[in-house]
Amino acid sequence: MAARYLVLEDGTIYTGTAFGSERESIGELVFSTGMSGYQQSITDQSYNNEILMFTNPLIGNYGVNRDNLESQVPTCQGVVVREVARRTTNWRMTMSLADYLAQHDIPGISEIDTRAVTRHIRQFGAMKAALVNDVQETTLARVRAWSRDPQAINESATHNAYSAPATGRRIAVIDFGLKYSILRELSKRNCDVVVLPPTATVQDVEAVYPDGVLLTNGPGDPTAVPERTLNMIRTVEQKYPLLGICMGHQLFALANGATTTKMKFGHRGFNHPVRNLVTGRIDFTSQNHGYMVERDSLAATDLDVLLEEINDHCVEGLQHQQFPAFSAQFHPDAAPGPHDADYLFDEFMDLIDQNPVQK
C-alpha cells in the first residue's frame, strides 16, 4: 500500500496509508466523534472544504449504500481514519468506502492515530491541513496559504428550484447545502416541499405560496452570506412561520442583529446533550458546526435563547419574541441519529397551523 501524509499547518506531519482517490488535497481538518454514520457525514454538504477525521477506530465496515446518502456529490476534501475495514458486510451495501471515495475523487488516509490528532486539535484548535503523497519543501507553505472558498454554499446548494409534491402544508425550503434527511422529515409529515436556491428573494418565496419557510444547513462562515439573503430572512420571518437549522440558525441570528464567531474546534458527532430552556427537556443531538451564535450579542435583539448545549452552554436554538420563528443549531433531522429532537419538526408544523398565512 502506498504511503500518504497528513500535514498540519503548525508543521506536524503524520504518516499513514493511502486509500480512495490518488489526488492530493488541502482543507480544514475537523473531527467527528460518531461511532457510525460515516456515509451520512461524508455526504453532508456542511463538510465542504473540510478534511473529515473519524475518532472511531474502525470505519467502513458496512460499506456504502444508496439509501443513506445526504447528497448526491460529496464535497469534503478528504477522509482520515485509524483503520479502514478490509472486509465490508451489509445486505444494503453497493460498494466499499474506499471504492466510493475513489469514485468521487476524495483522498483518504488510514493507519493514523486519529485520537492523538484529535487531542492535538482540541488543544490548538481546528487548523488547515493537507493530504499529500509526497512531502515537499513547498507543502507547508501551500497549506498555510490555503483559504476556504467563500462561495462554498453556491457549490453545495441547488441552482434551480425543484419540488417534492404532496397534499399537506407547503414548505419553502431555502437550500444552503441541505441534507436529504431534512426533506425526509418533511416528507414524513406529508409536506408539499418546494426547494429554492440560496439566492432566493422575497418574491421567489412569495411566488410559491408557502405555509412556512425552512432555512437549511450549509458549509462555511455564515458572515460570508450576502446581505441580500439576510434582508430576505428579515422580511420572510414577518410573513411566514420559520425554522432555521444549523447554518439556517446562524443566518436567522445574523438577520436579527446577533453576531457569530468561529469555535475553537466545533461540535461534530451524535452525542451532544442539549437542554430546552422552556420545557427543561434534554435531548442527545447530532451536530456539525464550526461557528456559533455569540450569546452576549443577543441582548440587543428580539431573540431569546431556546436551546443550549449542556457541556459548554453554546447557544443551540433561538426563538423570536414577536414572530413565529425559531431555530436549532443542531440537526433535529439527525441522520443517522439520535432522533430525540425530531419533535422540533412537529413544533414547526404546529406553529404553521397556529399562524395560517393569508393568501
TrEMBL record:
Active-site residues, as the UniProt record annotates them: 246 (nucleophile), 331, 333
Residue segments, region CPSase: 1-169
Pfam families reported for this sequence = CPSase_sm_chain (PF00988), GATase (PF00117)
Q: What class of enzyme is it?
A: ligase
Q: Keywords in UniProt for this one? A: Amino-acid biosynthesis, Arginine biosynthesis, ATP-binding, Glutamine amidotransferase, Ligase, Nucleotide-binding, Pyrimidine biosynthesis
Question: Which InterPro entries does this UniProt record tie to the protein?
Answer: Anth_synth/Amidotransfase (IPR050472), CarbamoylP_synth_ssu (IPR006274), CarbamoylP_synth_ssu_N (IPR002474), CarbP_synth_ssu_N_sf (IPR036480), Class_I_gatase-like (IPR029062), CPSase_GATase1 (IPR035686), GATASE (IPR017926)
Q: What EC identifiers does the entry list?
A: 6.3.5.5
Q: Which residues form a coiled coil?
A: none
Q: Which reaction is the catalytic activity of this chain?
A: L-glutamine + H2O = L-glutamate + NH4(+); hydrogencarbonate + L-glutamine + 2 ATP + H2O = carbamoyl phosphate + L-glutamate + 2 ADP + phosphate + 2 H(+)
SMART domains under this entry? CPSase_sm_chain
Give the metabolic or biological pathway. Pyrimidine metabolism; UMP biosynthesis via de novo pathway; (S)-dihydroorotate from bicarbonate: step 1/3; Amino-acid biosynthesis; L-arginine biosynthesis; carbamoyl phosphate from bicarbonate: step 1/1
Q: Does the keyword Kinase apply?
A: no
Q: Where does L-glutamine bind?
A: 46, 218, 220, 247, 250, 288, 290-291
Asked whether the keyword Metal-binding is assigned, the reply is no
Ranges where the Carbamoyl-phosphate synthase small subunit N-terminal domain occurs: 2-132
Relate the protein's function as given in its record.
Small subunit of the glutamine-dependent carbamoyl phosphate synthetase (CPSase). CPSase catalyzes the formation of carbamoyl phosphate from the ammonia moiety of glutamine, carbonate, and phosphate donated by ATP, constituting the first step of 2 biosynthetic pathways, one leading to arginine and/or urea and the other to pyrimidine nucleotides. The small subunit (glutamine amidotransferase) binds and cleaves glutamine to supply the large subunit with the substrate ammonia.
Under the subunit heading, UniProt states: Composed of two chains; the small (or glutamine) chain promotes the hydrolysis of glutamine to ammonia, which is used by the large (or ammonia) chain to synthesize carbamoyl phosphate. Tetramer of heterodimers (alpha,beta)4.
Please report which protein family the annotation says this sequence is part of: Belongs to the CarA family.
Question: What's the name of the protein?
Answer: Carbamoyl phosphate synthase small chain
What species is given as this protein's source? Fructilactobacillus myrtifloralis
